[in-house]
Amino acid sequence: MGTSTNRTRAGNASLEQAVEDYDLVILGGGTGSTVAAWTFASQGQRVAVIDRKYIGGSCPNIACLPSKNVLHGARVASYIRRSEEFGLFTDGLRVEMPAVRARKRAMVMGLNEMYLDQYKRTGAEFICGSGRFVGPKTLEVTLSDGSTRLLRGSNVIVSTGTRAALSAIPGLTEARPLTHVEALELDHVPAHLIVLGAGYVGLELAQAMRRFGSRVTVIDHNDRLLHREDDDVTGALADLFGDEGIETALNASVKKVSGRSGESVMLDFEQDGRTTTIEGTHLLVATGRQPNTEDIGLELAGVQLTSDGYLKVNERLQTTATGVWAIGEVAGTPQFTHVSVDDFRVVRDNLMGIHRTTTGRQIPYTLFTDPELARIGLTEKEAQAQGIAYRLFKLPMEGVLRARTLSETRGFLKALVAIDSDFILGFTAFAVEAGEIMASVQTAMIATLPYTTLRDAIWAHPTLVEGLIPLFSSTPSSSTDIPAQVLEAVSVNS
Ligand SMILES: Cc1cc2nc3c(=O)[nH]c(=O)nc-3n(C[C@H](O)[C@H](O)[C@H](O)COP(=O)(O)OP(=O)(O)OC[C@H]3O[C@@H](n4cnc5c(N)ncnc54)[C@H](O)[C@@H]3O)c2cc1C
Ligand SMILES: NC(=O)c1ccc[n+]([C@@H]2O[C@H](COP(=O)([O-])OP(=O)(O)OC[C@H]3O[C@@H](n4cnc5c(N)ncnc54)[C@H](O)[C@@H]3O)[C@@H](O)[C@H]2O)c1
């Protein structure tokens, strides 16, 4: 620990500078790596986190939490529009985006203060600056005043995350499209927002902006919204978007973009052999992510990349350089905050000599449209592709009494249960507060409880989770490839 003078190569220039030694240096402070910093520092280790911009990384600053904050505002707008349904009469709705943004900014500021306080309490050091490797386990940080520091860690974690990818469509970059970062900072409602990409970011923000009053068109080159999900899910999402007046152009291949987002922007796309031009005022790009692995000196540290530019890691999240670990999206981890936190657990245990891997993790997720889509385990598509026979329990939300009290009966619950046991293989809720309903089913799956435990539990009335009783009491249908004699045996035994 402490400092020593060392000769290190930074690019072509050799520099002589005091190296500060740490037990752990973290490049990029996303959620998982921030928790790592706090954890190791509170155990007495000397820990530094280098981040060029964000205290706590993307999630609390530009991604999950600010987007959910803005989405909630849009949900309130939707309630106000529906107010007469609840016997409430208002004199109309005026949306002030600067105030929407101010609420979001205040939340982010509060989160930043909370994080800084936690840094102080644990003794981890947050260094605001841009970092790059200049040698094995050694990083140079350039601070905002242009000065530099050299940090060397007994262990180093790389957690530089990803950024919005811009497809190689002629004119796209020049049109200066919004990404989620700018979309969450808008001080006005776009007159006509074109959303390129019908994935998580695109769908959540499309619905929110529509509810704030924007005309919205969603374009995707796949033929369904959120195309990896089962057809009943993507169909229900399409119905929802249709009912809310969101236009969609699917199976659409964008050939050219012209104009400028924020003023007037045109997209030429081919669909069913025809070329169409659509014009909007704003363009949001939500077509996936690209890893932040360029220009950070990985080659000087012996850290190799995969063919698509992510860090090459093993199932213990070790990179190809000894003592250099990876956490989060930059390691190719599924792109959710809760999985980056589990990456932290994997690295933590391995650093403590406990073997823990990323293999076979069960990963839940929730799309925060309204209603939400919550998913865990196998979809029907996945079960069929893997030749896994299942019993399918499905219940429309009209069958959940709590949903009726809320006038939120859109959607359904469905569960896949093994044909040869009562274990739950997968669960989907497209429903109000779906993410909360899923948690109970996930707990049963973690504990490998049979579905009958959920069916036979006494749930408080009237709650949404109580819907698991009618769901699991319904008569299941079965996947087509289940042999008749197996089905017969199941029905005889049940
Ligand atoms: C709009 C949006 C909404 C989302 N909503 C959800 C959600 O509801 N739920 C969910 O689970 N997930 C959500 N996600 C995904 C989630 O944000 C990420 O999976 C999560 O933040 C994990 O990111 P990470 O730790 O890999 O990296 P990040 O949190 O992105 O951290 C990487 C950090 O590295 C820093 N950095 C990069 N290069 C350098 C460098 N050279 N020097 C110094 N610092 C550097 C960056 O400034 C950044 O702070 C959302 C994503 C987006 C875009
Ligand atoms: N609620 C959440 O948990 C949440 C919310 C937002 C983001 N995220 C995470 O962030 C990740 C990134 O989100 P995202 O929406 O950017 O990516 P995504 O992978 O979810 O969706 C990208 C979409 O863009 C489409 N696409 C790609 N290239 C295209 C092109 N050239 N033309 C037209 N369509 C194109 C794809 O078909 C896909 O539908 C998500 O996968 C998710 O893991 C999670």
UniProtKB/TrEMBL annotation:
- List, alphabetically, the InterPro entries matched: FAD/NAD-bd_sf (IPR036188), FAD/NAD-binding_dom (IPR023753), FAD/NAD-linked_Rdtase_dimer_sf (IPR016156), Pyr_nuc-diS_OxRdtase (IPR001100), Pyr_nucl-diS_OxRdtase_dimer (IPR004099)
Report residues binding FAD. K68, G131
Residues annotated as catalytic? H461 (proton acceptor)
User: Would the keyword RNA-binding turn up in this protein's UniProt record?
Assistant: no
Pyridine nucleotide-disulphide oxidoreductase dimerisation domain: residues covered? 363-467
In this chain the FAD/NAD(P)-binding domain maps to 22-342
Q: Which family does it belong to?
A: Belongs to the class-I pyridine nucleotide-disulfide oxidoreductase family.
Keywords attached to this entry: FAD, Flavoprotein, NAD, Nucleotide-binding, Pyruvate
Q: Which cofactor does it need?
A: FAD
SUPFAM superfamilies, A to Z: FAD/NAD(P)-binding domain, FAD/NAD-linked reductases, dimerisation (C-terminal) domain
Pfam families found in the cross-reference section: Pyr_redox_2 (PF07992), Pyr_redox_dim (PF02852)
Which residues form each disulfide bond in the chain?
Answer: C59-C64
Protein name per the record: Pyruvate/2-oxoglutarate dehydrogenase complex dihydrolipoamide dehydrogenase (E3) component
Q: How is the cofactor bound?
A: Binds 1 FAD per subunit.
Where is NAD(+) bound in this sequence?
A: G197, A198, G199, Y200, V201, G202, L203, E204, G288
GO MF term list: flavin adenine dinucleotide binding; NAD(P)H dehydrogenase (quinone) activity
Species in which this protein is naturally found? Granulicella aggregans
